[in-house]
Amino acid sequence: MRETRPAYKRVLLKLSGEALLGDRTFGIDPAYVRYIAEEIRSIQGLGVEIAVVIGGGNFLRGAAVAEQGIEEATAHYMGMLAMVINALALQSQLESVGVPTRVQSALRIEEVAEPYIRRRAIHHLEKGLVVIFAAGTGNPFFTSDTAAALRAAEIDADVILMAKNKVDGVYDADPRVVPNARKYTDLTFQEMLEKKLMVMDQTAAALAAERDIEILVFDVSSAGSLRRAVLGEKVGTLVHVG
């Protein structure tokens, strides 16, 4: 009989904005967002407490917009608003499949989301709600990766599940470009930095390492992979302290 006891009690799922694209090149694919919602529902049924951080790259990236002449801090705030849009889309699809959800925003937008309050977020998690942390850290110049590491530390998550789209772990080169790229199944944070592997930005990696929070990089587009990851099966690449 297959093990159905989760390996983790509380997880933080990090989704890139591109993860909501599906087969599109811009914006949101509602059908694919629903697929993500179903994947999350599959682990909620295991009794896992789930928090989510979503990037905004399917709409815009602050750094890229700044290169086009928009003042850099303003460009980053624009990126945070894109993250809020994605959070609301995922919330809607989660609730349509019966998963109670709260969005907490680092920017105050009370009409559509609660303000981020750590103790309230933990209370929601303990009650079985999925909590989506929107708008990154609420500060310019920090990535959604850093927001994921920060929120994971604040809520005492057991692991950061780094969901990739059609890439099933960490490689020494882009496997979509280099057919014989080597896949790592296990890495320490030190090895990740020494090999200059772009799992997440250095600020986020340093915080995760300091707080001893594991990072599991996996392919969310592979049906059932999120559930297998939470059950502790060999999925993707595990990054840890040592």
Structural description of this entry:
This protein has a nine-stranded mixed sheet with strand order 4-3-5-2-1-6-10-11-9, with helices on both faces. A two-stranded antiparallel ribbon has the order 7-8. The mean pLDDT is 94. Helices cover 36% and strands 19% of the residues. By secondary structure, it is of the alpha/beta class. The protein has one domain (10-162, 175-240): 3-Layer(aba) Sandwich (Carbamate kinase), CATH 3.40.1160.
Oligomeric organization of the protein chains: single chain
CATH topology-level name: Carbamate kinase
Question: Strand-and-helix sequence, N→C?
Answer: EHEHHEEHEHEEEEHHEHE
Question: Please, what is the average pLDDT?
Answer: 94
How many domains comprise the coordinates?
1
> What general form does the structure show?
globular
Based on helices, strands and strand pairing, what is the structural class? Answer: alpha/beta
The CATH class is identified as Alpha Beta
Gap from first CA to last CA: 32 Å
Q: Specify the number of helices.
A: 8
